[in-house]
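Recall the central idea of this unit: under ordinary conditions, the amino acid sequence of a chain determines the structure it adopts. In this exercise we apply that idea directly, starting from the sequence alone.
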Amino acid sequence: MRKLCLIAAVLCLWTACSPRDFLTRRLASALIAGSDNFTARQQFWLRIGPVSLKDFSSPQYVVLQHRGWIVGSPTPCPAEVTPPPCYEVALTPVGVDTFHDLIRGTESGKEYFSIPTARRELVSITGISKNDNLADVEFTWKWIPLNEVGSALNVGGLLYKSTVSLKHYDDGWRLLDGSTTKTNQSLEDALKNADPVP
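Accordingly, the structure predicted from this sequence is:
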């Protein structure tokens, strides 16, 4: 009888501690990879029509030119486009084929398009530093291209290192939202402040 009571007590204590009470690499990975900020896709904004030289000579537009997807010719700058000089940007026939399926039907006829190019992939949790009910989790991640445009604009295999803060609540660990410091920062800030891994 005594053994039965002891076993019942141990089982009650054991089940009272949920898996979310212990911050493991697996739990940290699930919290990060499942968050809205982490799953947000990388977007490239393509503007056709008059574009300033500053935008036309940006690294992204240079890649599109080298791929033969866009061309540009000098044109007068409209009042809303600065600084001069300007270029009239147009899709080439190859560019039309490439971007045709990537532009939503509701955006046809517009001169400014949002193209989803990549998604994040969590590579690994590299460390967890805990202090009472707070923890900093360091992790590496990379961009995975979603299409041909994403492959052209994202350097393949480049890893990023980020640190995010978590807080332990009564129902388990949660990612912190909205902080401005390097430690105790939100996942959104951690992804913005990511450093390339050497």
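Residues 2-16 form the longest helix (15 residues).
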